[in-house]
Amino acid sequence: MKHIAIFASGSGSNAQKILEYFEQSDEIRVGLVVSNRAQAGVLNVARAFEVPTRLIDRANFYDSTDILTVLQEYQIDYVVLAGFLWLVPAYLVQAYPRRILNIHPALLPKYGGKGMYGHHVHQAVQAAGETESGPSIHFVNEHYDEGDLIFQATCAIDATDSAAEIALKVLALEHQHYPRIIEQVVLQDD
Question: Which CATH class is domain 2-105+136-150+178-188?
Fold first, then answer.
């Protein structure tokens, strides 16, 4: 049995899809949900699935390696970022080489990097007049959105689509593909 931890900062819609996907799995289990926001909806999602949660603060995450102890305590094999807005520190990347995955709501390398998250990404895509967008799933390294790509999916964008409409199209693809790609990466590592 492989154990994954989900790191998230927001409502937890991707986390919910991941939890649903692996709820009956005999091979992969979500063992922990970590958030950097006490009010994050993802914490309620985790409680609904009876998955343990941990709240982290910036000082502890960046100035100590305590999170590694927590991940070891829960026997975490992979870390999955699902709307986690902090840069993953080098010590964590080194402890989990090619075992930290992220999903980004644009076709990387476009529209990635610091400050490019959520509606900021979709506004930039719309402003640029792009005709397609979609999520990118990638391994995490020490830089925002620069790790090796694993998978991308695309959706057409109409010239009349608002940033909010683009966001809905991309989110549907995230929910469709992220759990399946996580499963592929984890199981091919066996």
Answer: alpha beta
